[in-house]
Amino acid sequence: MKQELVHVIAGNIFAITDAQGDIEPDPQLPVGLFAYDTRFLSHWVLRIDGERTNALSRDDLTYFETRFFLVPGTASHYIDADVSIIRHRSVHDCFHENITVLNHSSQPAEYTVRLEMASDFTDIVEVGQVRQRAVEVAADPARQQLVLRYQRERFIRETTVCSTVPADVDEQGMTFRIRIPPEGRWETDLHVTVTMGGEEGRDLRADLQSHQHALRTGMDEDLSRWLDRAPQLVAERAGLEELYQGSLADLAALRYQPFSYRERVPIGGLPWAMGLFGRDSIITCLQTMAFTPELAPSTLRMLALVQGGQLDDWLEEEPGKILAHLRYGETGAFRERTSALYYGAADTTPLFVVLLDEYERWSGDADLVRELRHPARMALDWIDEYGDLTGDGYVRYQRRNERYGAVNQSWKNSPDAIVDAHGRQPAFPRATCELQGYAYDAKRRGARLAREFWGDLAYADRLEREAAALKERFNRDFWLPHRGYYALALDPYGEPVDALASNMGHLLWSGIVADDRAEAVAEHLVGPRLFSGWGVRTFATGQRTYNPVGAHLGAVWPSDNAVIAAGLRRYRLDAQAARIAAGVFDMTLTLGGEVPEVIAGYERSLTTYPVQLATSCRPQAWSSGSLLMLLATVLGLRPTGDNLLVDPAVPEGFGRLELLDIPGRWGHSDAYARDRSTERRHRLR
């Protein structure tokens, strides 16, 4: 079994190390110091008198700061060790490490402290197959600096390491020859800056400690402000308040500023999605609207800024299309895989309109709706002009970048995710069911924006007619009357893909489900084939390709479940929504720590413990956001004009819930609720 990995993170900059704080490349995981999709440190190993260290303990202070307590040598040296080491590490706009060596003996002691350093400047998407790069190394003893540099044409990345105390600097690292008095200590601060674009190097020693203190203080204050702005949760259920605070802190960690953009937007998750992903960012904003609404306007503006404006097969760009992801690594810069800008997603564009409308409902920010009128109308136009690939009125996808484009361009984007009950893959272009729900919702919401803010009544009427026709057509073509559920997709010939999958929960969320079919859909979602006890599986048991450890063929995603629970409450299926919410909360409380991106779909009674998948991101923005969305769902929070409606349906066993100072166009409001068992106990008293 591999040893534990430790991370510190601040937006797009993060470091993943072993339990001792050392960095050595792993072909399976992005171990190292990364920023903007590039690894700036691939080797960072501490030795004391030639020996590696071993961990005694660790103190994770915040998401951006941790301390390692170490001793040199093997476990046999732990008893009455004469020397110990503390590595205090933090990240913000750079990487900082304070190394303290403590002499516990009554005699002075001399040690050789060595820190080995190297960088391979690997693009994060190439971690499993690292190419050799010509890295320039410049040791600068006069400045106590080591500079590592890689350049390919105009693509330049540079790592500079500086020490606050004198060191012997060579091309492989820094050596400190130290003498410590009895019961004394020695320490140095190591400051690692990452540079993109060939900025001139500078002497980093000046005011390094005060600069580091100011940055860390700023990070602490930013986190405090973030937590203070969010509503306060008071929960009778043990562990729920801590889980809520942890989710808020994870969301704070997963914010970053794209280049040439002033505001921070949510990124995907650690380690594989540490950048702007259109789908993840939009869903995260929708999930957290009642808690951290400030994420939405910055995300909407950023996505509008990079909205598609031309036809480009390699980028899969089309006019009006909303970005799939934004990358800054070398492979994207030279179009060796997908480009830095990639648009291969069919759901981001309608969801952009959904988010814009939802944000206005909560905030009352009419100015933003007017500001983004053109991008929103371009997105609505895309649904019919470019999303409808066969002319049958359904949003479909088919990749145009045949070499590197995503095969499936919905949220279930693994290549084998869309199959029928017998495991057969449909032809392209594919129309998955939830895409039609998103398009329906976007048209309905776009009609409201056009009528109330854009002053275009004719356009509003047209969108409403189109939405109504889509709903009628969808309920005719996607419904499987002999199965009692909606098809996962339609193939290009209009034939249904008959798999039973979680996607139809998104249909409830969008409102496209006919009222007389909602209960049948709900019975499937919480039935034994889809519901594992921890949550709804992505793909039902009893089908040929069902796999409990298949990300989209049987595993359970908290983000998926949060949307499903919200959809169930939309159709007043409160008991089913509460059951799903309870399962996800139980899963997360059982695991502890950050909410996982995905767990295996094993039956809860079989494993009694949630089994995490090795490839999942943790922390992950839309997973942390899912806990907030589930809280809003069980409390029944919904903006209604200038008021906040509270209509709770709290799962049994949760007791009393209070959410205080919920922000919105009403100012701040409170929500109170208790589960029915608590209500019964109070009545009996």
From TrEMBL:
Residues 10-190 form the Putative glycogen debranching enzyme N-terminal domain. Pfam families: GDE_N_bis, MGH1-like_GH. It comes from the Bacteria. Residues 393-586 form the Mannosylglycerate hydrolase MGH1-like glycoside hydrolase domain. This is Glycogen debranching N-terminal domain-containing protein.
